[in-house]
Amino acid sequence: MSSGVTLDEAVTTAYNELKLGHKYQYVIFKLTPDMTKIVVDETSDDEDYKAFVNRLPDDDGRYAVYDVKYTLPDGGKRNKLVFMLWAPDTARIKAKMVYASSKEVIRKALVGIQAEMQASDKSDLEWNAVFEKASRFN
Question: I want to staple 62 with a disulfide (CB 3.0 to 4.6 A). Which of 15, 84, 86, 132 is the partner?
């Protein structure tokens, strides 16, 4: 089902700066107030994962890409790009529906995502859950 939502050009620009340029640790995206376009909400190079989670609003949805960095038992370093759909239980029903139905619009544009997750409560975004998703396929 197509939601009719479009993608702002800055979305792919910010994503590529994260993916290729390693300029950011994460990028958060949101729908415009009229819910017709996905735009960049925030970028950051802060590696504090809890600070990232705290940037997600308690009462509205968001999309995000987080660059998960970790070290394998043999010492090899890895990083995986994890796409997140944030749709908290406290968000308006219409917002949750539009975020869910527009997810494919942004996912298709973000080439190279290695893991994906959906969260409706901040407990769904515990570091261990994100790490498990990211490290599933080394």
Answer: 86
